[in-house]
Amino acid sequence: MLLEGKTVLVTGASAGIGRAVAIGCARHGANVALNFSRDVDGANAAVAEIEALGRKGIAVQGDVSDPATATAFIAKAVEALGRVDVFVNNAGICPFHAFLDMPVDTFERTMKVNLHGAYFMVQAAANQMVKQGDGGSIIAMSSISALVGGEYQTHYTPTKAGLHSLMQSVAIALGKHNIRCNSLFPGTILTDINKDDLADQAKRTYMEGRIPLGRLGQPEDLVGPTVFLASDLAQYVTGASLLVDGGAYVNLQ
């Protein structure tokens, strides 16, 4: 119960990594507010699981690409749950596309959701933490794609590198308020964002063969690292990053 008494906010939490993290934090004692964009049924089901664990949970719908969504999410979470102790920026999209004919709207939408949305969400959460006066933890769900390239991810990888850079800078800006800011770098995790790409069994087998631990990741693999960074066990960890990729990044041979 590493998060007993804490309130955790997670964006993009109706499915995938966000949902797993939201429920995982509840298992560790937290009350949870989750943001979602479209999947009402998924968000409500996640809240039901959180409440079944004896914790408070709410779901707030909103598109993170709109800066107004950030202030609304924080306000509604505070109204329902009282405060913000941990903020997990997870919402993101990756519409795979080639570089040379990248549509302007695909590029701009990816930037607005993944990076601009993160900026304003983190800013809103940080302002609430500063107002409370007793610190907090901000965690950005970056990606191994912040460190390596991707032929069909030229619009996506810069956003994930930008997320980590944002965490490094806000770690400095918010340190005096005892707000810790860190990044997680998931590897290939089986979620809706890549299910079509990994429907090719040959590609999936190849990817699995490149991972020292011998398997692709599951959303639940991000729960432990998130809970650690959210908890008091990480009270002297800020501006840091943690790979959660089964060893894929280091497997260069």
TrEMBL record:
SUPFAM superfamilies: NAD(P)-binding Rossmann-fold domains. Keywords: Oxidoreductase. Signal peptide: none annotated. Residues 6-193 form the Ketoreductase domain. Pfam families: adh_short_C2 (PF13561). It comes from the Bacteria. Belongs to the short-chain dehydrogenases/reductases (SDR) family. This is 3-oxoacyl-[acyl-carrier-protein] reductase.
